[in-house]
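--- STAGE predict ---
source: upstream dedup step, 1 unique chain passed
mode: sequence only
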Amino acid sequence: MTNKLTQLNYRWLLYPLAILLCLTFSPTSMATLITIDFDSGLAMGNTYTENGVIFSEVGGVMFGPADGGHLQLFDSNGDSSNNLQSSGSHGCCHIDIYFADGYIFDLTSVDVSADTGLNQLTASSGAIFGIDGVNIYDFTTIPGWSNLSSLHLDDIAGLSIESMVFDVHKVSEPFTIFLLGLGLIIMAYSRREFVSRS
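--- STAGE serialize ---
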């Protein structure tokens, strides 16, 4: 009798443990804020990469220093931090923005330190935003700027971007998925034991 009670108590201890593992380590996405400040990335040809975010000029315009052409990476407003700046005429530059690992993201904010108007940002959701003037634009309250796969910055001229902030949805790591699987195995084993002893 005591042995059966011990087995019963042991079995019912496994259930909460398994449920806890499943709930805690379920493979949901985890949000991570990533700020692009145009200081620590790498410019190669017509692409600039920082923190896994790729800025690709689709027309082949090169990224360069202050005197390096239409797209420039330099401190244009004297705050000791580089900006992404276009000095070309309207229609010169068209930049695709996306994560190298294909992460889905929300656009949180864009800090614009110079703008001559007519610059347009388009989301993969189809949302369009016209950048009009110097401002820190908050996209968290604007519909259409979440769960994106890419952005497109179009027809830029006289535009200087200080920083961009993304809220990235990363899937769980393999070890997390392993722990979820372990929880499911424990639940299956406990159920089998319960059925076989009934």
